[in-house]
Amino acid sequence: MPAQKYNARDCRFQVEDFNAPGTWLEFRTSEGGTGEGGITTFTKSHEYETADTTTFGSEGQAESQNMQIGKSLTLEGLRLKDPVTGALDPAQALIEAQAERLGNASLCGFRFAAPGDTTWEVWPKAHFQLGDTGGGNNDKASWSVTITRSGPSTTAAIA
């Protein structure tokens, strides 16, 4: 079958529960989680650190090599809150708690997959930085987080 476009809304995202390592909590999206989804946009980013390898022999032409790669993923959407209990969406609440942790405790797992994938891309160590929350007169409250990988990626089978 030839390659096909897929819906961004059908991608899946999970965070590892720092209180119960090995337990993963899924964000509510079109395909994953339950109930109303809060994620409306995601962006996976790549950063590169390069070394200048230019010498006199380069004859005025710049030369360089990639020396380090970094990856991050930003989730944006709507803040979900139970109107009766006041509890946040479980995945959003876990991320907000994890973002308050420092040092070695600031690292926990994060994983994601596109529709049809049979394996997760796993970031065994990642840290989380919350974005702004807010909105205007006719808006729902926003929510966002940037997840930054620390170390290499791995994979795991999707059960």
Task: Please supply descriptive tags for the structure shown above.
159 residues, mainly beta, 8 strands, eight-stranded antiparallel β-sheet
Overview of the molecule:
There is one protein chain. The longest helix has 9 residues, at 90-98. The two termini are 24 Å apart. Helix content is 6%, strand content 42%. It is built from 1 helix and 8 strands, in the order E-E-E-E-H-E-E-E-E. With 159 residues, the chain is mainly β. The model has no long low-confidence stretch (mean pLDDT 93). It has one helix at 90-98, and strands at residues 12-16, 24-26, 39-52, 64-78, 108-113, 119-130, 142-149, 154-157.
Element layout with pairings:
Elements (H helix, E strand, L loop, with lengths): L11 E5 L7 E3 L12 E14 L11 E15 L11 H9 L9 E6 L5 E12 L11 E8 L4 E4 L2
Antiparallel strand pairs: 1-2, 1-5, 3-4, 4-7, 5-6, 6-7, 6-8
Broad shape: globular
Low-pLDDT segments, ≥5 res: none
Tell me the β content. 35-45%
Terminal CA distance: 24 Å
**What is the residue-mean pLDDT, rounded to a whole number?**
93
Largest sheet, in brief, is: 8 strands, antiparallel
How many β-strand runs? 8
Helical segment count: 1
User: Which class of secondary structure composition applies to the elements?
Assistant: mainly beta
Calculate Rg over CA atoms: 19 Å
Q: Indicate the percent of residues in helices.
A: under 10%
Along the chain, the helix and strand elements come as EEEEHEEEE
